[in-house]
Amino acid sequence: MTVCGVVAEYNPFHAGHAHHLAETRRALGADTAIVCAMSGNFVQRGDLAVMEKYLRAEAAVRCGADLVLETPLSACLWSASGFAFGAVSLLDALGCVTHLSFGAEQADLALLQRAADLSRAEGEHADALRQALAAGLPYAAAVQQAVSAADPEAGALLATPNNTLAVEYLCALDTLGSPIQPLAILRAGGAHDSDRPADGLPSASYLRGLIAQGDVDACRPLMPEASFAVLAQVIQQGAAPVTRNVVDQAILAHLRRLSPADLARYCGSDGLENRLWAAIRDNTSVAAVCTAAQTRRYPLARVRRALMRTWLDLPTDIPPTAEYVRVLAVGARGREVLRRMKDTCTLPVIVKPVTERALPDVLQPVLAHDALADDLYALAYPDPMLRVGGDHFRKTPFCLP
């Protein structure tokens, strides 16, 4: 059996995601098992997922995925490089994944690999990167400028977000020395953060906008029916949409207790901590803090991630690498993959969260962060009666018959 990994957030799962899974199987074979490393309750843009992780994983398995695993929390709130490395390290540790499929605006694997090689190069390219950072460019822009100086065609790839992630996946595979073979799929549909669908394929941000406006029915033609059914039911139950607005003042109250030195533990000591401290004191909402703190050097996504890491007590010295495997949803082929993993996986596998208390003591601090994050996420449910703690240990993976 071919086993293909996919890195995703599925926030929510839409027609573009279904297209990617179908194209992956078209390239590798209809019986390919697809294993997804999916962000949990917090996503890489520095926000809460619109719907709880087990439910998003259920939607994915109902729509073509075979096994959904949780990307490490620390990786989910990292820049593109840490996000990619954490997810790829998880898939690599399974020991049975043969391919990694990802979408890209230019699905030219050789060109993407050139960009990856240059972005990791030493010598003059590293000097160019340091100079760009010293000039005040954010890291992603500095990498693009340094790569472009050596190879304009490869550098041009890094102007779009999915290409950037594709390059980071390749870098992660190289760093790990992984035998997993990359597979680039041409991305179709609305661009990242697009305000309209293209060819019936939306961006996830467009769907989240419709959901936030209460226009859930408008999502139906843009999502697989099974995914839409999960979303509609969860909204009816009062468990979605989950938004930061509900916990806005709780986050701000926590932030105002901290000094610049405290904030530096979560965002680094390059000056962002001072901008955040001033913005936290001078503004009355998290959105306003983000607007006040962001600059060309400190992009909005980095600011949001820093604030979310602070609220979750997730310092940047916690590495983005996987230390265990958490199963969120599984289908028939996914159960076969789990059976293979008994002989190949190098990490503990958590199926029922209640069993994690028996794992080695060295893992307990990271497991505690997971539980804390889930408890804080629960505070943002629309229905106040659902905002209880302890749900982390009560939920189990969705199993498709």
Please provide the count of β strands: 10
Q: Biggest sheet, in brief? A: 8 strands, mixed
Q: How much is the radius of gyration in Å?
A: 20 Å
* Unreliable stretches: none
Helix content: 40-55%
Helical region count? Answer: 18
Tell me, rounded to a whole number, the average pLDDT.
Answer: 93
Sketch the topology as an H/E string, one letter per element. EHEEEHEHHEHHHHHEHHHHHHHEHEHE
Q: Which word captures the global form?
A: globular
What is the strand content? 5-15%
Structural class: alpha/beta
Ends apart, CA distance between termini: 20 Å
Give a topology summary:
Blueprint: E1 3-8, H1 15-28, E2 33-38, E3 42-43, E4 47-48, H2 53-62, E5 67-70, H3 73-76, H4 80-93, E6 99-104, H5 109-119, H6 124-134, H7 139-150, H8 152-157, H9 161-176, E7 181-186, H10 204-212, H11 225-236, H12 248-255, H13 260-267, H14 272-282, H15 286-293, H16 300-311, E8 325-330, H17 332-344, E9 349-350, H18 364-378, E10 398-399
Parallel strand pairs: 1-2, 1-6, 2-5, 6-7, 8-9, 8-10
Antiparallel strand pairs: 3-4, 5-8
Helix pairs in contact: 2-11, 4-9, 5-9, 6-7, 13-14, 13-16, 14-15, 15-16
Protein architecture, described:
There is one protein chain. By secondary structure, this protein is of the alpha/beta class. The protein is built from 18 helices and ten strands. The protein has helices at 15-28, 53-62, 73-76, 80-93, 109-119, 124-134, 139-150, 152-157, 161-176, 204-212, 225-236, 248-255, 260-267, 272-282, 286-293, 300-311, 332-344, 364-378, and strands at 3-8, 33-38, 42-43, 47-48, 67-70, 99-104, 181-186, 325-330, 349-350, 398-399. The strands form two sheets. Strands 1, 2, 5, 6, 7, 8, 9 and 10 form an eight-stranded mixed β-sheet that branches. Strand 3 and strand 4 form a beta hairpin. The model has no long low-confidence stretch (mean pLDDT 93).
